[in-house]
Specification:
about 350 residues; alpha/beta; Quinone Oxidoreductase, Chain A, domain 1; Rossmann fold; 2 domains; six-stranded parallel beta sheet; 17 strands; about 30% strand; globular; binds NADP nicotinamide-adenine-dinucleotide phosphate; binds zinc ion; CAD-like; ER; ADH_Zn_CS
């Protein structure tokens, strides 16, 4: 086993501790983790932690420090990016279709997952070193700032796949609900795809930043006049809201035959079917992305100069990052600099 340091949950807070990584398998690389984004999923995981080993972090960039004998795509010193899935069966129809994220055997999550070979619980990127199968690591295109690119690997790919799957392009009217980590990247990506983008936010005060990110306007979800004016307007609505909520008011914003893709809160929500019936509207979801799609997204971002808007903090301030994320006090993603772990 290899020793490193990580931020491990004790109760509902994190503590710096020694952790171990597996010895490299033939197709593994070891990554020195330089930067890891703080996703709202990490916040959900830490705040609901009730035992068991938990090291969060599932969108990171770094440098290859060792490669197993069968590794062909990477050499020591290569800049890499790793996202929120790190393995899949490779044999099912989903894997064959390049949708490893929907693997029939469930993909191995970057943390809180179960390693397919040794049954151990995976520990995430809030640590200085991560060992990963080369298939699930991506070359970080030159030109992308490694700190600001880290959030592309969860927040970015999670909104990229539905935008692509729903055929977003020039002329598509896209709404993005929730202007957080996922939401601000959805705005940038959809705008770069040529769509007409609007933000649906609780606060009118976010209009200027939404427009700066590439949106045309803001629909204020707490203002009945604003939502009434946007009724039946959007071909695609990407909903990134992190809590259970009534989908009705958001479905009302979707155009006839349009789709609401609910990628934020993952859990039970009730839907009034009349909100789907009226206008033949569709309800969908998504999470993470396949290997090929993730590589495509990184190339697209390099081509369009897209990275996250970040606030970079030393990893020693991870507790502050989680508290501020909980309060919505972030523009638009915290990224931890892991170099303070030695
Ligand atoms: N499907 C997946 O695979 C996947 C991947 C990553 C994350 N997620 C989930 O996606 C969600 C968003 O993650 P994130 O990292 O983007 O979070 P985030 O940075 O906290 O952003 C969420 C945004 O939603 C809005 N919001 C927050 N609380 C709200 C509330 N109570 N009611 C209505 N709107 C609220 C806020 O925007 P406004 O202030 O503009 O209203 C906020 O900026 C989380 O639940 C996360 O677990 C899912
Ligand atoms: Zn995430
Ligand atoms: Zn599979």
């Amino acid at each position: 086993m290899r020793s490193t340091t990580g931020w491990q949950a004790h109760g509902t807070t994190l503590r710096k501790e020694p952790i171990t990584r597996r010895d490299l398998r033939p197709d593994d690389i070891s990554v020195r983790v330089d930067f890891c984004g703080v996703c709202h999923t990490d916040l959900h995981a830490v705040r609901s932690h009730d035992g068991g080993v938990l090291v969060p972090g599932h969108e990171f960039t770094g440098v290859v420090i060792e490669a197993g004998p069968d590794v062909t795509a990477f050499r020591v010193g290569d800049p890499v990016a790793v996202g929120n899935i790190v393995d899949s069966c490779g044999a099912c129809d989903m894997c064959a279709a390049g949708q490893e994220n929907f693997c029939r055997e469930f993909p191995t999550l970057t943390y809180n997952g179960t390693d397919r070979h040794d049954g151990s619980t995976t520990l995430g990127g809030f640590s200085r070193e991560y060992v990963v199968r080369e298939k699930f690591a991506y070359r970080l295109p030159s030109g992308l700032d490694p700190a600001a690119a880290a959030p592309l690997m969860c927040a970015g790919i999670t909104v990229w796949e539905p935008l692509r799957a729903l055929g977003v392009g020039p002329g598509t009217r896209v709404a993005v609900a929730g202007l957080g980590g996922l939401g601000h990247l959805a705005v940038k990506l959809a705008a770069a795809m040529g769509a007409e983008v609007s933000v649906v936010s609780r606060s009118a005060g976010r209009a200027a930043e939404a427009i700066e990110l590439g949106a045309r306007d803001v629909v204020v979800s707490t203002d009945p006049d604003s939502t009434a004016a946007a009724r039946d307007r959007f071909d695609v609505l990407i909903d990134t809201i992190p809590v259970a909520h009534d989908l009705g008011p958001y479905l009302k914003l979707v155009a006839m035959d349009g789709t609401l893709s609910q990628v934020g809160y993952l859990g039970s929500m009730t839907v009034e079917t009349m909100d789907l019936l009226t206008g033949r509207k569709k309800l969908s979801s998504g999470g993470s992305g396949g290997v090929a799609a993730t590589a495509d997204m990184l190339e697209f971002c390099a081509g369009h100069g897209i990275t996250a808007d970040i606030e970079l903090l030393p990893s020693g301030r991870v507790g502050e990052a989680l508290d501020r994320l909980e309060r919505g006090d972030v523009r638009h993603r915290f990224v931890l600099d892991l170099s303070d772990l030695g």
